[in-house]
Write a structure and sequence with these properties.
Strand content: under 5%
Oligomer: single chain
Largest sheet: none
Shape: globular
Number of strands: 0
Helix content: over 70%
Order of helices and strands: HHHHHHHHH
Radius of gyration: 20 Å
């Protein structure tokens, strides 16, 4: 099963890279292609790791070198898939957790690179996680839908408060904020996470995500002050922290961590 988990992680890493190269620009799925000229990649270069090992990391058409992100994503996907299988060796627990992990990895990669959480990702993810949650005997449709609604509405409230804060800063400083802490993509992501973990799991997941984001932001702020490079209102992507809370709750519930 470890080998299957490693292979599943490897293939999901390839898929995440391909989607992260196309969805932000076209909103459609296309085969792995060069991020610079959109030329199709050779089969061996579909994988960032294999492209690096076979010296095929440069596009044969435009000469552009592949992004370092591609092999890194595949390494992360394989490593986490193996760890996940060690934590959850039973397929009925492993595969739903693997599915959620792959979705969250795609969201994080696109958010870090483009500061976007795309509806073309979260909408299908909501359907998949909603169906998995509804079929889960420990939760069922009601707790699944309640989790989705709570996640969506809570972060929607934070999104609206962020908009009010941005307008206040504009009035005080006469300068508009380019971004607030939570964008509407975070709202839809919270809805997906709520469908995944159900209610009351979404409360724990959001609390952990917000606290983790706050701790990171404080550490980042102190680091920048210490280096004399402090800039007010620097936006920080929140999807990694929301994903962290989601995976802790989702995996923890299936591993017996939460009883």
């Amino acid at each position: 099963m470890i080998l299957i988990a490693a292979l599943a992680g490897f293939l999901s890493g390839i898929a995440v890279n391909a989607l992260a190269d196309s969805l932000p620009f076209t909103r459609t799925v296309r085969p792995p292609s060069c991020a610079s000229c959109a030329a199709p990649r050779r089969l061996v270069a579909w994988s960032g790791l294999l492209a690096t090992l076979s010296s095929s990391s440069h596009c044969p058409y435009c000469g552009a070198k592949q992004k370092p992100r591609r092999p890194i994503v595949e390494i992360v996907a394989v490593s986490w898939s193996i760890v996940l299988n060690l934590i959850l060796p039973e397929g009925r627990f492993y595969w739903p957790s693997f599915t959620l992990s792959a979705i969250l990895l795609l969201v994080i990669v696109i958010d870090l690179e483009h500061r976007l959480i795309l509806h073309v990702v979260t909408a299908p993810a909501a359907v998949v996680m909603g169906l998995l949650g509804a079929l889960d005997a420990s939760r069922g449709p009601l707790k699944t839908l309640a989790g989705g609604a709570v996640g969506f509405l809570v972060v929607l409230g934070l999104f609206m408060l962020g908009g009010l804060f941005a307008r206040l800063i504009f009035r005080v400083r006469g300068q508009a904020l380019e971004e607030v802490a939570f964008g509407f993509g975070d709202v839809t992501l919270a809805g997906v996470i709520g469908l995944a973990v159900g209610f009351p799991g979404i409360v724990v997941a959001l609390t952990m995500g917000v606290l983790a984001g706050g701790v990171f932001s404080l550490g980042f702020l102190l680091f920048m002050i210490a280096r004399g490079r402090y800039v007010a209102f620097v936006p920080i992507p929140y999807s990694p922290f929301l994903a962290l809370g989601a995976l802790v709750v989702f995996v923890g519930a299936r591993s017996g961590l939460f009883g």
